Amino acid sequence: MSETVIGVALLIAAYFAGSFPTASAIGMVSGHDHSKEGSGNPGASNVYRTSGAAYGLITVVIDVLKGFIPVLATLWILDSRPWASAVWAAATVGHVIPFARWRNGGKGVATGGGGSLPLFPYLGLVLVPIFIVAVKLTKRASVGSLVITGLTLVGVVILHEDPIEIAMAAVVAAVIIYRHRSNIGRLLSGQELKVG
């Protein structure tokens, strides 16, 4: 089987992995409908806000794995960073624009962040504490998310020369930032919901 066929299969698998409705599954267990409570976003920060810290943490872990596992599998199967970068983008897009809920996906931060770890582990080690500090200082998950999204793209551009890796990092950043457009509006107007 050719590398292209395997690569395309991995892209499709990554998209469907990213599409897994983590918040909906956690909602069934916790007795909450996260599409109708809190911010209405099916993401970890809203699960934390409406169902509590334990459920929020479980959601983060699963969403991170949705990006991490497909990228790691691609690096292992094809030993190709360009293909793994494309899989990273596919998993993130799957989370943001899932096939079953089309326009009702999450923000893409945990899945995008998880997918970046096998590719850029040292960058991830730096950005995780930055995210935590940004959220602690502002009490808003969206601020931390936007900060690390921008820094991830900057870091990839500075540390890596491969144009495909840079292009895929740009796709991931663009998708996440676009999905945060309502958060940006609320931040500018001072109406963004707090975490905790």
Distance between the termini: 50 Å
Principal-axis shape equals: globular
Low-confidence stretches: none
Structural class: mainly alpha
Query: Could you spell the SSE succession in H and E letters?
Result: HHHHHHHHHH
Q: What fraction of the residues are assigned to beta strands by DSSP?
A: under 5%
* Mean of all residue-level pLDDT scores: 89
Question: Strand tally, please?
Answer: 0
Q: How many distinct domains?
A: 1
Secondary structure: helix percent: over 70%
Largest sheet: none
Radius of gyration: 16 Å
User: Number of helix segments?
Assistant: 10
Could you characterize the architecture of this molecule?
There is one protein chain. This protein has helices spanning 3-19, 22-30, 44-51, 53-78, 81-96, 109-119, 121-138, 141-159, 163-179, 181-189. By secondary structure, the protein is mostly helical. It has one domain (3-189).
